[in-house]
Amino acid sequence: MWEDEIMKNLKCRATLSYAYNLGDIVVQNVTNSNFIQPELREVNIRVRKFASTSFFKPGDILTYTIVLSNDGTYEAKGVLVKEDLEHQSLLKDSIKIRALDEALLSHEEGFGEVTFKIDTLAPQNTVYLTYQTIVDEIVDINFNINSASKVTTDDYTVEANKVHLVQKYAKLVCEKKTDSII
Fold this sequence. Notes:
Layout: H1 2-9, E1 15-22, E2 25-32, E3 45-51, E4 55-56, E5 61-70, E6 76-84, E7 88-90, E8 96-98, E9 105-110, E10 113-121, E11 125-135, E12 145-148, E13 150-152, E14 157-158, E15 162-167
Parallel strand pairs: 4-15
Antiparallel strand pairs: 1-2, 3-5, 5-11, 6-10, 6-13, 7-11, 8-11, 9-10, 12-15, 13-14
C-alpha cells in the first residue's frame, strides 16, 4: 500500500523555542529533537457473521457464529456487538465466547437481544462469539430473518454482513367435505 511507503519515509521531530531570565542574564534559544519514525496507531475491526443454515421453519434451532478480528496495529477499546433476536428466543447456556483473553469478555441478555462486550481487542487478535436460538412460531409464512450484527467501539461503528435466512416449509390444510343427509 502507498500509505505504508509514506509512513516508512516519514520522519518527525520537535522544535522547541525557549527564553528565560537569570537575573541580568537573558537566555534564548531554539533547539531541535532527533528525528523519529512516528507510530501509526490504526484500529481495523472486521466482522463476519455466519448461520448454521440458510433455511428455517418455526421450532428450528439456529446457531450463529460471529468472528470479530482487529487487523490494525492498535487495540480497540469498548467493543460492543448487539444481536437482534427478532422472532427468535435465545437458548439457555448456548453462548460461547472464544478468545485469547476471555477475562475481558462478557455478555448481557435482554428482551429480544443479546449484547457482547469486549473491553479491549488487541491488534492481530480474533474473538469468536457463538450462540443458539430457537425460531418462534411465525404466523406470516412469507417472513424471512435478516440478521446483522451491530458493532461499535469507543471510536467508530463497524459495518457487518447481513445473514439472510429464508423460511422454507409447507403448511398444508386439508378439509374433507361430506354431504350430510338429515
